[in-house]
Amino acid sequence: MKHVWTTLVFVLLFGFVLSACAAPAAAPSAPGEAAPAAQVRDFITWYQYDEKNEDPASDERVGNQYLRDTIPQFNEAFAGKWRWVNQPKAWDRMTAELVAAVQAGGDVPDLFEMGSSSLTELYKNGALQDLKEWASAQPWYADMDPNALKACTGPDGGLYCIPIAERPHLVYVWKDRFPEGFPTTPEGYLAAGERLKAEGLYAMTFFGSTDFNGNGATRAVFMTFASFGGGYDDGEGNMLLNRPENVAAVEFLRTMVQSGYVPEIAFAGGFQEEEAFKDASAGSFPTGLFGYRYVNPLTAPNGTKYSKGNEEDMLDAIAAGDVILRPFPAPEGKTPGCNNEVTGFGIPVGAKNPEAAYDYINWIMSPEQNADWVLRPGAGFPALMTTRASEQFQTPFYKQAGEVVAASACRPWHGSLERRPEALRLIMNAVYRLIKEDPTLDIATELQRAQDEYNAGG
Length: 458
Description:
Blueprint: H1 2-22, E1 41-46, H2 61-77, E2 82-86, H3 94-104, E3 111-115, H4 119-124, H5 132-136, H6 146-151, E4 162-174, H7 186-198, H8 211-214, H9 220-227, H10 244-258, H11 275-278, E5 284-288, E6 298-299, E7 305-306, H12 312-320, E8 323-326, E9 337-346, H13 354-364, H14 370-378, E10 381-382, H15 385-388, H16 396-406, E11 409-411, H17 420-437, H18 443-456
Parallel strand pairs: 1-2, 1-3, 9-11
Antiparallel strand pairs: 3-9, 4-5, 4-8, 4-9, 4-10, 6-7
Helix pairs in contact: 9-10, 10-17, 17-18
């Protein structure tokens, strides 16, 4: 038996030596060659866009197409290193989903597409990494708009997102509905409303519902408050709604609504307020700059139809002069106000491959990629000043938008408020009650009620 085991061991060893000699050793990659496929790692992103959704009628078709176009480009640029895998998320739930994943120690993406409006919620829940040290060492950092960087800065001074595009709010206007020019004051807006009402038309449509947890408070409502010299906070983290400027702003909105200068569809929810601008029954529509992607097709007051059914309709109407961009009306002595947000990227706490996110951000900041991201998923102004000066942003749309922003005092709606989802809900519910549900209510009392509820929760 001992001889049998000795023979067996010898045979096994001999076979192992033969197999080792037969298999050539893997040569190391030469400079410039791709690394072995086994070394390629997945780069996971959460975007609100889905490259697999090819529906041409999808609201997010622009972002969907962008991902279809650029995922192969990125994979080619980083062949042998990263493989981009996008996991699409619902725009109104992805922030809460990331917070839950981080707190549970679950799987998180390497890069998170985000807007500055969600920064405080993500910061307070410890969901994002501070990117200031890394970002400040990159060659593009000095070229960033300081206002964009500020929007991504946390209470502790850390940089918790990298801004790529800025999205200010403004007013889309059917030029022919205001033959003497779009009003610059609330009084002029009301007068135009009375004139248009006599023609069976409306002066304004806006996000007037409490839908999407009060998101309307970031849009026309804030534009009105800010244009009257008001706002939502005291600069120290407390809500400050009950002040004379805000009372006057609500009085203006209440008069617009109760006088019939705003269509009922403005309060239907589901972004149905857009329909009144699409058919030109409403002469103006205060909303985000990014609204051009969604408000289509269009029929101008003169009967011209812009019917491609995509983002080009609004751009074509502006280029033709049928639609113009204007600041929100403001009382004498006041500067038009508006909300300004940035959109860009954060790197979650617990990301497995933050190096992939660094590579991706630097790739997006390159001249070959930056303008394309801003024009498509970004839907705003470039945060990089050199990109802002490029040829792509010298169109009628961007020139007019730039003039509006220059004439306005735009700032983030939330100011110093930290519990932003709660703030939105309380503010929009109060405004809705005052201008639509029960216009007999005392404005100051209702604003104070919302203010007290928020501050008590702090």
